[in-house]
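Researcher: I'm preparing a figure for a lab meeting and need a structural model of a single chain. I don't have an experimental structure, so a prediction will have to do for now. The sequence is pasted below. Please return the structure as tokens so I can convert it later.
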Amino acid sequence: MGGSMVLARRFEEHRPRLRAVAYRLLGSLGEAAEAVEEARLRLERPGAGADADPGPEAGAVRNADRALTAAVARVCLDRLRSRGAARREEDPYGEDGRVRLPDPVVGRVPGPGPGHGGPGPGPDSEQRALLSDGCDLPFMTALDTLGPAERVALVLCDLCAVPSDEVAEVLGRTEASARQLADRARRRVRAAAPAPDGDPEHRREVVAAFLAAAGEGDLDALLAVLDPDVVARSDGGTLRPSLLRRGATTVAAQAVIFARLAEAAHLVLVNGAPGVMAVAEGRVISVMSFTVRGGRVTALDVLTDPDRLTRLGLTALLD
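Model: Understood. Here is the structure written out token by token.
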């Protein structure tokens, strides 16, 4: 079987995985889908599959899988570069006056429990592919502080286990340079997004306590679950102001105000971690992601951009 036929056969089988790779590289679900389709079209060009080993079959499959990942990574690298070098140097955490968050992957909390609408199914197969290998929202936001080459090097090396020589080929750099890029990116991401507490159930309890306290307007209870140096970041898009709040007292007061605007709030999974989805007048008005460390909330990332929330189709989770 020729290389192009191997790639064509494998592409559709691997589309969910390839979309997950593109999501990590771009931080946008819509752009990820577009990038995967663009990669497919590029691979259909004459000679595009020439490097895929036609046999034996096991070797062909391995080479085809790596070729597909590399093809998607190249498209994403082009898109990252087209966003402009200036934006890559800005701080998505709000130091430049704006807050930018990646698209969240939101799902129901499976099984019965407090704070959500009863039993619900776990993530579907596409969501499982998107969330494999860990991509919580703080980690995804930290990725957005990296330059295009750093981001591609880190994602391919650490999340996709692509050999460094193949990463170098995608980037058009030497293997040593690709390793250095990945090492530097790894250090920056770890500093910007420290690992949260490891027990998911405990984190869910902390988020549920936050949700209950905010709904009751109980500032003391909120202060009990917030780290004194907690940071809250809100991405309102172009229609609503971005907000950056620091300190438990300030964040607690803001949480009570926001809770009063919502008719209902549901515990959900945001990129596989406990989060909250707020609803008013039958539409989703916010998605909140929590970082819990040392038993307290250390960071709160809130997407309130109405356009993006609509595009994500989150009202289906209310059924």
